[in-house]
Amino acid sequence: MLTVSQDTVTIEELHAHLNGSISSATMQRLIAQKPHLHIQHSMTAINRGQRRTLDECFQVFEVIHQLTDRVEDIFTVTTDVIKEFASDGVKYLELRSTPREEKSTGLTKRKYVETVLEAIKHCKQEGVDVEVRFLVAIDRRHGTEVAMETVKMAEDFSVSSDGVVVGLDLSGDPTVGHGKDLIPSLQRARNSGLKLALHLAEVPSQQEETQLLLSLPPDRIGHGTFLHPEVGGSQELVDTVMKKRIPLELCMTSNIKGQTVSSYDKHHFLYWNNLGHPCVLCTDDKGVFATELSQEYQLAATTFNLSTAEVWALSEQAIDCSFAPESVKQDLRRRWAQLKREIHS
Ligand SMILES: CNc1ncnc2c1ncn2[C@@H]1O[C@H](COP(=O)(O)O)[C@@H](O)[C@H]1O
Ligand SMILES: [Zn+2]
Questions:
Q1: Does 136 map to a domain?
Q2: Ligand 1 within 6 A of 17 CB?
């Protein structure tokens, strides 16, 4: 059996929500700091063998948000999450998070993003071996106005952050709201040079919305679970995605534990990978779903019987799909080749 060991192929993580990525060690510390909330660790993670409905997953995020409502919490979780990805072998990380305002602690949306950026800088100064970029997230539940406000903020930060803010994420409960209300904001973001990573077709029966959002088009698709005809999508959607060659960010454990995919062997990785379409393995929420990027590669390798060469090819392809500038991609390709030589020598 292929062993995907640490610091080998898990070089790029492109789909990680900050508050979903908090490890159990950090979570225990946050819980201990806020005993009055009466939160237990079992309320913030879905462990081995457990499953929840997607709706229940979104309730988990509400619990976690209570634990991260101060500037210092955002700094701590960002720093810890970056270091944890680095120790799993990740050399390039695109984190995403929804700016939050908390009146009781004085946290503002702007301060939220500034704090994430400070933590990224802090890790760099400490010499943590990972390049980090940030996507500002739009929560689809919050509607049109907040979406536009978020885009404007992302535009400001993309200018002031020295290239760290590279784009926007669209996420949140996929059953709430409609993509059409968000088109003007997303269109504006695209026009101002921000990259778009959109959660698309995460749940069934969203063909109309999916077609509309694909017309932007996005630069990457999160999940895309229900795009293809075998699961109620359509050939037309598949053709659009393939023609525009929009990479898919695939998060196997997340989809199984959130019950949008019934078993690992039925994961849509198989469909898209067989078509030769770019697929990037990601964690989504490594804290909530109790996983690691190396574990996701291992899972794909064992479930789909991938050869060592195929796994290496997947991680190499992920480099092309990132929103990093060409110079960073070149550097990552060099490191990838070097790691490969070291492992196989
Ligand atoms: C499981 N599949 C998913 N589908 C859609 N959105 C998701 C998600 N997992 C996480 N999020 C989004 O990320 C937020 C938590 O991180 P941040 O507070 O932004 O750092 C959630 O509230 C949700 O909006
Ligand atoms: Zn996600």
A1: yes
A2: yes
Q: For this structure, is 155 an active site residue?
A: no
pLDDT tens profile 46-55: 988 898 999 9
**Average pLDDT for 139-145:** 96
Q: In what order do the strands lie in the sheet with 220-223?
A: 12-17, 92-97, 131-139, 165-171, 195-200, 220-223, 248-250, 279-281
Question: Which SS3 state, helix, strand or coil, does residue 15 take?
Answer: strand
- Please tell me the predicted confidence (pLDDT) of residue 4: 55
Which residues span the domain enclosing 218?
12-330
Q: Whose CA is nearest to atom 7 of ligand 1?
A: 172
Number of domains in the chain: 1
Which one, of 56, 36, 37, lies nearest residue 46 by Cα? 56
The answer to the question of residue 234 being in a domain is: yes
* Ligand 1 and 172: CB distance under 6 A: yes
For residue 10, what pLDDT is reported? 77
Ligand 1 pocket test, candidate residues 44, 58, 97, 176, most atoms within 8 A of CB: 58
Residue 231 lies inside a defined structural domain of this protein = yes
Question: Which residue is closest in CA terms to ligand 1's atom 13?
Answer: 17
Calculate ∠ Cα 181-252-272, nearest 5°: 75
Q: Which ligand is nearest to the CA of 98?
A: 1
Report the CATH number that the domain containing residue 262 is assigned in CATH. 3.20.20.140
Cα 172 to ligand 1 centroid, rounded to whole Å:
5
In a domain, 6, yes or no: no
Beta bridge partners of 94: 133
